[in-house]
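Propose amino acids for all 362 sites.
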């Protein structure tokens, strides 16, 4: 039973005793025969003392600890408790599944979004799921576009020859095989991610010279062969565009540290952050960090993006929270574009899910 309800019940019981005692002392019969008030003073003090104790216990239970408030450059704000709430599974097992979501591993609880176009939570397991959720919405379309125009390719061409990009499925299979024997390989294979997406993906045509993620090392210059002559005497660079697929989404990835070697203590929150920030091809705007807890927000803006034949700037905001427990590492992430949400209804749902995260213990 909830401790707050128990303490409140005790206070109500003491109030009832106090009312009965007062009525008894001031009843007509006692008034006529005199009231021995001094004899009851100790009883009153005793009752009031324990009422104060129970009220203090309720205040302690309701105190949630210090808050983290992070506002990005666009004015969007996330407010979280620094200490994530932790509940036993038994305390939430009977909650309405239409309002709350408990993952099948009984690891966490979140509020479900209210808008009807959200997908049901989809659970993805293993390395491939982890790889597909890392970085900027890394669907097959986006990975192929990003790698095709990424300046790293130009850099590597200074060292290697005949660089040919493999098909997407071969890429993922190769990563799976290559990382199998790495420090984190076994852990990544046993990881599980939960994804909630809004509506159907939006196809965005962007200029590779418009900004990140194509200019990690500088301006994203198209590879040789993408230039053409507009006339015999004039040479111009064609505007090179690639198609990206985007959805507003929320995801949670859980990494189990117990799958690592017993003596391997390399998986800490700090190590994970430093070794994975290379995946963040967007501009980090704010970051708040404390022991076992990190929250940051970043953004990327594509200038003159084309959506459904219309040209306009397109911004994607990302919020990431990393939490380290004794046995697990939790990575919460949301991606949001204000350009897809004129009423801010999508943002309100994403904020609701992100802020409602609770860790469960059996």
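Proposal:
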């Amino acid at each position: 039973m909830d401790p707050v309800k128990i303490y409140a019940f005790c206070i109500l019981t003491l109030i009832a005793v106090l009312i009965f005692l007062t009525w008894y002392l001031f009843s007509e019969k006692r008034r006529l025969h005199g009231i021995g008030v001094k004899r009851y003073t100790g009883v009153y003090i005793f009752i009031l003392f324990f009422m104060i104790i129970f009220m203090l216990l309720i205040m302690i239970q309701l105190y949630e600890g210090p808050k983290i408030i992070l506002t990005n450059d666009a004015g969007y704000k996330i407010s979280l408790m620094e200490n994530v709430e932790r509940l036993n599974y038994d305390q939430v097992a009977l909650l309405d599944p239409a309002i709350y979501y408990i993952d099948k591993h009984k690891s966490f609880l979140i509020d479900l979004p209210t808008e009807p176009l959200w997908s049901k939570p989809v659970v993805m397991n293993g390395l491939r799921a982890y790889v597909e959720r890392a970085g900027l919405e890394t669907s097959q379309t986006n990975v192929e576009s990003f790698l095709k125009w990424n300046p790293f390719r130009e850099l590597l061409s200074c060292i290697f020859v005949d660089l040919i990009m493999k098909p997407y499925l071969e890429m993922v299979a190769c990563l799976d095989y290559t990382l199998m024997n790495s420090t984190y390989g076994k852990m990544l294979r046993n990881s599980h991610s939960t994804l909630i997406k809004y509506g159907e993906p939006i196809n965005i045509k962007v200029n590779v010279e418009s900004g990140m993620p194509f200019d990690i090392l500088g301006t994203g210059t198209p590879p040789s062969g993408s230039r053409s002559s507009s006339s015999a005497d004039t040479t111009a660079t064609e505007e090179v565009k690639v198609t990206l697929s985007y959805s507003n989404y929320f995801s949670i990835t859980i990494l189990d540290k117990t799958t690592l070697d017993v003596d391997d203590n390399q998986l800490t929150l700090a190590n994970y952050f430093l070794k994975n920030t290379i995946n963040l091809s967007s501009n980090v705007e704010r970051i708040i960090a404390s022991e076992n807890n990190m929250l940051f927000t970043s953004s990327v803006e594509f200038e003159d993006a084309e959506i459904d034949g219309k040209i306009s700037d397109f911004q994607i905001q990302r919020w990431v929270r990393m939490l380290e427990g004794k046995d697990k590492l939790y990575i919460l992430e949301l991606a949001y574009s204000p350009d897809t949400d004129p009423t801010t209804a999508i943002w309100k749902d994403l904020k609701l899910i992100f802020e409602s995260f609770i860790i469960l213990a059996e």
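The first helix runs from residue 3 to 25. The chain has two domains: 3-62, 67-361.
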